[in-house]
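Long-time lurker. I teach an intro course on protein structure, and each term I like to show students one example going from raw sequence to a predicted 3D structure in token notation. This year I'd like something fresh instead of my usual example. Would anyone be willing to generate the tokens for the chain below so I can use it in lecture? Attribution to the forum is fine with me.
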Amino acid sequence: MPQARILCAKCGAASSEARPDCAHCGGRNVRVCAACGFQNSVAKNFCDRCGRPSGFTPAVPPVASAAPDPRAPPMTLLATAVPPARAAVPPPPPDGAPRPRGLDARRRAGRALVALAAVAAGAALLKSRQEARRPEAAVPRLAAQYLDALRAGDYGRAYGFFSDAAKAACGEEEFRASRGATPWSWSKPSVAHQEPGAVLIAYDLQTQDAPVRRDHLLFVLEKGRWVRPYNWTLMRKVEAAFDRNDPESGRAAAEEAAAINPRDPMAWGYLCETSYYRKAYGEAERRCRRALSLARVYPSNLTPKSLYHLRAILADAQKNALGRPDLALEQFAAMLDFPDASSEDQCQILLARAEAYLQLRRRNEAAADLARANALCARPTDRADLARMGRTLDR
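-- Reply from a regular --
Happy to contribute to a lecture. Here you go:
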């Protein structure tokens, strides 16, 4: 293996021993690496640049006649005795020789940190996108865009949020014509209810000269998009049909409204009523139950009195038409809990429930309801029903 040489950095003279000063000119001796030409301190055992062992071969003692001419210019070390340093990375050390690990280790550690940072950044971005797509995050943003479009009168943009069925039932011009001109604003949106495929948004609605009230928007998932199942123009047609005593037109519009938004309790309430008046009592029972169930979750324009009316239809259908007085008891109890039920209303409910108890042969409970009704019923027809059921109990 080539050995390092000890040469004078000033005159270039070779030295046969590792002494710090040149014996010829007094200049500084250096240990020149045979592999890369780097000038190391004489005391170095390994090259500072490439890490190779820096042992040296003793130089042949110079002949006296070969002493350098002091008048000659000094020799340059690199030009005469040392091979020029290469710009390229030095070759790897021979087998068994120590390797310069510090720089490589730092580079590897740096690359590992960069890779870890990239992985962490990618994971954070993926998580952020996943969070943004979650319904509880995505739908409030869409609701804000929809409300801003409505408030600004940009009805074309708002119409773009409609479901396909909603657009088929209501054209953009019809939707535009249905909007009022009263200024309004909105604030404080929040998720009021969430279930697979549906998110209900609540927000504060402030109209001119009116107190703030809590209003709601429903969004449903359709073909991978959250859209509005808008059916309000149809609901207006239902109400208009009932006002002009045209129940068939009202029923058709209500069925279309319920198909667009199956979670609308008001649409199912109208269907309950039309089924009852057509004497389709089984259908009326199913539709009334659905309307009442939805009304517990989804706000609508069904007033407490409207809900009372639906329960009355359901109880009558169950007790008198379907022969299930046991099911009607639940509706009677709920009707008695209505805070605005008048004395006459309570009288009617108690008489009907007492009759259901008699049908079920629950005489004690029937007697208790008749006793309460006796203090409330004032109309002659109600007093006659009270007396009739009292005679039944006496038998």
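Some talking points for your students: Residues 281 and 321 are 7 Å apart (CA to CA). Residues 101-133 form the longest helix (33 residues).
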